[in-house]
Structure formats: structure tokens, C-alpha cells
Amino acid sequence: IPDDSSNSNTGTSSGMTQSALQQSGLQHTSGFSPYALDFDGTSNLINFGTSQIVTGLFTFSLWIKRSSTSIGATYQSMLTKDDISGKRVFSSYVFKSGVVSFWVSGTGSYNSTYSVQTSTLINDTNWHNLIFINNGDNNNNQVFIDGEEASYTSQGTGITTLFSTSSYTSLASNLYNTSYSPFNGSMSNLSIWNVGLTSSQVTEIYSEGIPSNLNNHSAVSSLVSWWQLGSNSSFNNTVWTCLDEKGTNDGESSTNMSEVDIVNGVGYSSNGVSTNMSDNVIGDAPYSTANSLSVNMDVLDRTTDIPS
């Protein structure tokens, strides 16, 4: 702490003048949720437990950023409720080629009648918003990429009543076999809705390429669960806890993930050059420089109590 005793009434430091101040060239921008979680393409995943979460028509939205278009599994899991045997409910994944696919089941088994594959590709390493819609019996299912409906090589129909099972819902890999199609890249802002959203509601989620506060979405009454995946998540030296911003289905990471797996999120950009500074700030205090980092605490330790 500098000795300001000679200027205690003015609040200025000794030997400093206004001419010593210089304009900073550093700039920083980010969306509502500036962080994401990074998955190594080996066995990293988030487990959301055995709750059914949705039982029929649904929409789920996710932002992804592939680490590579040439390495990793041939197809890589996103959100899945699938034990790879007789308890299959739905699965979504992106092929190494960039094809996006998902399917649903009402019987516990895979059937290509209910499978969708896109001819629109994600063949780069930029952030993209993916939205998957199960529209119910005899209605074609849909995939939206960055707010626009994809073109398809096959477009299966939906299921009004999904197969009911206590199998786990997981993100970025299949919990029953972590070597089975693990995702290689970053993910942010996963949300699940219990309706098939309209195209205008999809556009609202995409929000011109920057994730927004989904509690302000026009269809918020149909929002079941929302995980920011990075923002409002915490690491306790063993696992990440990803808070469900809308429901009670908090997610928990596999134990091979660590604190370095939090990365810059969608819409994050900066310029200028800094020295000996960290790019990721956790525990940011808005409108203040008094940032902090907790020790041996997680996001579930926060309460809504008001001091008397």
C-alpha cells in the first residue's frame, strides 16, 4: 500500500500528477453469459441426473464451439438421454463432417423414422447456436442453426409421448460409456423447454448471436431448465456444479474436469495488450474493482436470506 500520508487531505499519491495518466487501449465486450465450459473430447461430461425433465414435445437450445473439424470422434454427443441399450429417449450430436443430427424414441429403442440429419453443416470452429425441436406424432422435427432452420438429408417425425426411464441425462458424452462419442470443444447456455417453440421464439433465443437472459424470454413459462454452463457455475476442487437457473436439475461434471475448463463464452472479445493479467475473472463484482474468489464453497452455498 503506498504511503499517502503527505497528501492525506487530497487523496492523491505523492509524486503523481494528472499528466501521468494515460488513456487505456484495453477493451472488453461479452454477452449476458460471458463464460463457457470446455470439454476435452475424451470423457468430460455434465450429468443432470435421472429426472425425466421433459416427457413429450420439447425444444432444447445449446451454444457450441468445436475445437477442431478434423480430430475427435466421428460423431460427438451434445445432449442425450440414452443408455445405448433398451432405455433410449433422445440424443443429439454433431458429426466430424459438420452434419448435425438428433433422434427421439417412444419405445426405448432407436428408429430412423424419428431421426433428423442436416445437410447444413457446422464445419468451422466458431460459436453456433443449435436448437432441436420434437414436434410430436406425425409432425416433422426441426433443427435450427444460428436462428435459421437447417436443410435436411433426412427429416424424421416427432414423438408425443417419450419413452419413460430413469436413465441419466448428460451433456458432452454418454454417461454409460464415456468413450462413446465424447464432444471436443466448448458449450454454453443449454436450455430445455416443454413445447415446440415457434420460429420467432427461436429467433428470440438466438438474439443476433449473443445469449440473453432467458428468464425474460416471451415463452419463459415453458422453460423447464436452463444452465449457463460457466457463468453461475462453481468448482469445489473435485467437480463443477452447474446451477439450473429455472428448475431444480442442477448438473454435475465428471471428476476429470478442473478449474481450467472454464473458458471465454459466446460473444466475448477483447483488444489491447495486458501484462501479467488473467483473461478469466471469476467472482466479478459489477461496478467495482473488488473482485473475489471463494475457497471451498460452491454456487449452492448461496442463499436468498436478507439480513435483519
Largest sheet geometry: 10 strands, antiparallel
Strand order of the largest sheet: 12-8-7-6-5-13-3-18-17-16
- Count of discrete alpha- or pi-helical segments spanning 4 or more residues: 1
In the predicted model, the low-confidence regions spanning at least 5 consecutive residues are: 1-14, 20-29, 271-293
Tell me the overall shape: globular
Order of helices and strands: EEEEEEEEEEEEEEHEEEEEE
Q: In percent terms, what proportion of residues is strand?
A: 25-35%
Rg, nearest Å:
22 Å
Number of strands: 20
- Structural class assignment: mainly beta
Helicity range: under 10%
Average pLDDT, rounded to a whole number, is 85
Termini distance?
A: 35 Å
Helices and strands, with pairings:
Layout: E1 27-29, E2 35-40, E3 46-47, E4 58-66, E5 75-82, E6 88-95, E7 99-108, E8 115-121, E9 127-134, E10 142-145, E11 148-149, E12 152-155, E13 169-171, E14 184-193, H1 199-206, E15 223-227, E16 233-235, E17 240-242, E18 251-253, E19 262-264, E20 269-271
Antiparallel strand pairs: 1-20, 2-14, 2-19, 3-13, 3-18, 4-9, 4-14, 5-6, 5-13, 6-7, 7-8, 8-12, 9-10, 10-11, 14-15, 16-17, 17-18
Explain the overall architecture.
- The protein has 308 residues and is an all-beta fold.
- The chain has one helix spanning 199-206, and strands at 27-29, 35-40, 46-47, 58-66, 75-82, 88-95, 99-108, 115-121, 127-134, 142-145, 148-149, 152-155, 169-171, 184-193, 223-227, 233-235, 240-242, 251-253, 262-264, 269-271.
- The chain has a ten-stranded antiparallel β-sheet with strand order 12-8-7-6-5-13-3-18-17-16, with no helix packed on it. Strands 2, 4, 9, 10, 11, 14, 15 and 19 form an eight-stranded antiparallel β-sheet that branches.
- Strand 16 and strand 17 form a beta hairpin.
